[in-house]
Amino acid sequence: MEKLLKVNNLHTSFYTHVGEVMAVRGITFDVEKGEAVGLVGESGCGKSVTMMSLLRILADTGKVKEGSALFEGRDLVKISNQEMLKIRGNEISMIFQDPMTSLNPVFTIGNQLMEPLLRHKRMTKHDARKKAVELLKLVGIPEAEKRLSQYPHEFSGGMRQRVMIAMALACDPKLLIADEPTTALDVTIQAQILDLMKELKNKISTSIILITHDLGVVADLCSRINVMYGGKIVEQGTKRDIFYNPSHAYTLGLLGSVPNPKTLIKERLKPIDGQPPDLLKPPEGCPFAPRCKYAMRICEIKMPPYFEISEGHRAACYLNHPYAPKVEGFKGRGR
Ligand code: SF4
Ligand code: MG
């Protein structure tokens, strides 16, 4: 498969009055054409900052310090603002957690749907309107024609998220980045939006990066998963690797003890005791060590390297070392 995006050793920091917060600390992953990839982890692990770095929408205090993000050969970190403006909302689009803050309350849904088409695609008003109706139909909004002249407050939360998805797909983007697209919605609506995303994934060729704290959500949609912790990708593999052969103690914690293949897909992220690391002073060793029930002395001293579990499956956890003690539910290397 051809790569659409190749992120290599990306570092992003925030320079605050108390010092440098190292929010993303050298992450590497890629996305193939037409593929959905998950970035999973607790809040504060760096997943949203990764997205904001790729789209260059970081707050003024944030800066990509190092690394690259090649999008069809163009480095999103280095291209001019002008070039980025052409890519954002056009070739790469995004969906955020809270549709209400992303929709403009003073413009009709029709206006907001047509805006990117007029701007990026230079469509006539007539064609843009036609396409807007098609888009609303695509995301399952009934009476699309009539809905165009309504305002965001006239839509329910679930319907607003559908509109956001329609807007994100307006320009037929090559890549869609969805940051916690279902988190702000109630459970039944969450399931509907997820079903919609799955359905769309089969209909359109757009690649997706799905950012979530919920393993159930990625299991449904993504073929490959990156588990993030403390600004790093701690485990990376196919959905099968992550769910059936978790090789990092943090992933194991997320899955909750021994994975049960029958209930796995419905498994939700289990809270793990303790706090994520302070990224003002990131630990020298494994960032998960203070919360890890399997932590060994070496874990606190030295950042674990990536252990190659199988092709495309790697994990930065000493439990994969041949001399490490055996842990129930953990397979990793050579077990
Ligand atoms: Fe736990 Fe050590 Fe693995 Fe980190 S490297 S997750 S502390 S066992
Ligand atoms: Mg976030």
From TrEMBL:
Compartment(s) where it occurs, according to its Swiss-Prot or TrEMBL record: Cell membrane
Cellular component per GO, a single term: plasma membrane
Record-annotated membrane-spanning stretches: none
Molecular function in Gene Ontology: ATP binding; ATP hydrolysis activity
Bilayer topology term: Peripheral membrane protein
Superkingdom to which the source organism belongs: Bacteria
Domain ABC transporter: 5-255
SUPFAM superfamilies named in the record: P-loop containing nucleoside triphosphate hydrolases
Keywords: ATP-binding, Cell membrane, Membrane, Nucleotide-binding, Transport
UniProt GO BP: peptide transport
NCBIfam families: oligo_HPY
Family: Belongs to the ABC transporter superfamily.
Name listed for the protein in its UniProt record: Oligopeptide transport system ATP-binding protein
Organism, scientific name: Caloramator quimbayensis
